[in-house]
Each structure stands twice: as structure tokens, then as C-alpha cells.
Amino acid sequence: MRLSTVILPIHRWSEGQKIWRRAEDLGFHAAYTYDHLSWRSFREEPWFGAVPTLTAAATATERIRLGTLVTSPNFRHPVTLAKDLLTVDDVSGGRLTVGIGAGGDGFDATVLGQEAWTPKERADRLGEFLPLLDRLLTEDATTEEGRYYSAVEARNIPGCVQRPRVPFYVAATGPRGLRLAAEYGQGWVTYGDARGPADVPVEQAPAVIEAQLAKLAAACEAQGRDVATLEKVLLQGSTAERPLASLDAFVDWAGRYRELGITEVVIHWPVPDSIFENDLTVFERIATEGLAQLG
Q1: Distance CA 21, CA 61 (A)
Q2: How much is the CA Rg of the chain, to the nearest whole Å?
Q3: Can you tell me the distance from the alpha carbon of 86 to that of 156, in angstroms, rounded to the nearest whole number?
Q4: Cα 139–chain centre separation
Q5: What is the pLDDT, as a whole number, of residue 197?
Q6: CB 285 within 8 A of CB 247
Q7: Angle at CA 250, nearest 5°, toward 208 and 209?
Q8: What does the alpha-carbon distance between residue 84 and residue 82 come to, in Å, rounded to a whole number?
Q9: Is 18 in contact with 54 (CB distance < 8 Å)?
Q10: 8 Å CB contact between 278 and 250
Q11: I want to staple 78 with a disulfide (CB 3.0 to 4.6 A). Which of 33, 110, 132, 147 is the partner?
């Protein structure tokens, strides 16, 4: 099992760069950031762009993997996104992972002036968005006319440092998203029950993930793919579980999900006076000792 963190893009870079460097020093496998234009309780607070933040983080670090968790079609287009991702992959020396999902119905869903899409409409768009992004990042020139997204002689030279392209970690719980994960993903991401993870009793939370993993395995089998070839990533912070309360709590939590087949857990970097408020000393101890105590 690998341990990673999410660093919210809320800090001016004079302070933010210290956190990204500290994440590398603590030995995290990867540091991700949310790709939103604003987000939930941080709506009226500082919030910076994901791609520039990752580019800056790439120049401030040397080893840690970097990524989005997750990017969505809510305000992205595959043609411009592909160029940005190719660039971050180059600046980082091939350390970029791209988390991708259908998006939700928050602020990003209407910021460009459109009506918020239904779950079906979001799934429709992701079903076109992801295959086109795959082509754009693997071909020098791409032309495709779609219902929602098109590309006309879109150039992406010299291509990604990572071959054939940067890895996709697909966030999905429904059948269409899971099929996309099985076909295009190098990893799969979940945060719990998409219908309302915070409402699931703590003792029932692992069963939700176990059921999702079974559906992922079935989707992979339908594609003729071994589910073991995908990373299975659990993002902490959306359920009633409290794995960051202590080192022992983390070890119990991570061990439970490792037994189910999760290969990477992602914990939120503490943010004072927010839903992600946690003791930084405990957090750093989890980062340096947590996985070792799993045995």
C-alpha cells in the first residue's frame, strides 16, 4: 500500500511551496490537489488554479509524484487540458498522474454560465472527454468530431515524458464510469458512497468500498483486463471515519482497506479552522510511521 496526500491550492506560493516540499520530505508517494475553481466551504477563501500549482510544485520538488484529484469536464476541454498536462509532465520529469472524473454539481458546474448537468449528462460527457484526451496525449496530431468535444489537427508534440502517456486515475462508481476506468485507467479512485458518504455509518463504510471493488473487477473482466493491473485509490475525508485522529486510528483504517484490495490511500493535509483540521504532529507521524506499522 502507498500513502499520498491532498494539498488544497489555498496558499500563496511563498507559503505553499514549503508544504509541497515538506510532503516530499515526509516520504509521501504522491501529492495531489483538487482541480476546482472554488470549492465548498472554501468558496469565499483563497483558492488557486490546479495546473499552475502543479507546475510550481514540479519545480519545487524532485521525487514525489504530483497530480489532480480530480479533473472533470465541468470547465475543462480535452484539447487545452491535454496541452497543459503534457507540459506539467515535462516540467516534472514524468511525475504527473491525472485523476479524472465526471464532476459534480457544485460551483464549477455553472461557473461558465451553463445549467448544471444531470448525472446522465455528466456521464455522457465523460464518455467522450476521456477517450479524446487519451488520443490527444498519445498522438502527435488529433482530429475528431464529437457531440460535445472536438479537435481539429490538434498538435501535441513531443508527447508525454511518460509513455504512452501520463497515467489516468478514473474516479467512478457507476457502471459507465467503471467501464471507462477498466478501458483507459491505470488507476481507479473512490471516496466512498457517491450518494452521500458522510451519511454511511462508520461500520458500514468498508462494505461500500468492497462492493465497488467487486463492480470494478467485473468491469475489468468484461474488458478482458486483470483488475490487478489497476491501482485502487481511496481518498479519505468524505466519510464519518476519523483515521487521522491518531496513529493507531490510521493503522486500523488503512489495514482494513488494504485487506479489501486498496493499494493507495490519500489523506488531506491539515487545514486549520476547516473540515480538514487535524493535528499536524499526528499527521506527520502518520506519514512517516503509518504504513510501516501495517507490517
Answers
A1: 6
A2: 18
A3: 8
A4: 24
A5: 80
A6: yes
A7: 10
A8: 5
A9: no
A10: no
A11: 132
Lookup: cell for 116: 448544471
- Residue with the three cell numbers 520530505: 25
Looking at residue 267, its pLDDT comes to 98
Residue position matching grid coordinates 491505470: 186
For the whole prediction, is pTM greater than 0.90?
A: yes
SS (H, E, C) the chain: CEEEEECCCCCCHHHHHHHHHHHHHCCCCEEEECCCCCCHHHCCCCCCCHHHHHHHHHHHCCCCEEEEEEECCCCCCHHHHHHHHHHHHHHCCCCEEEEECCCCCCHHHCCCCCCCCCHHHHHHHHHHHHHHHHHHHHCCEEEECCCCCCEEEEECCCCCCCCCCCCEEEECCCHHHHHHHHHHCCEEEECCCCCCHHHCCHHHHHHHHHHHHHHHHHHHHHCCCCHHHCEEEEECCCCCCCCCCCHHHHHHHHHHHHHHCCCEEEEECCCCCCCCCCCHHHHHHHHHHCHHHHC
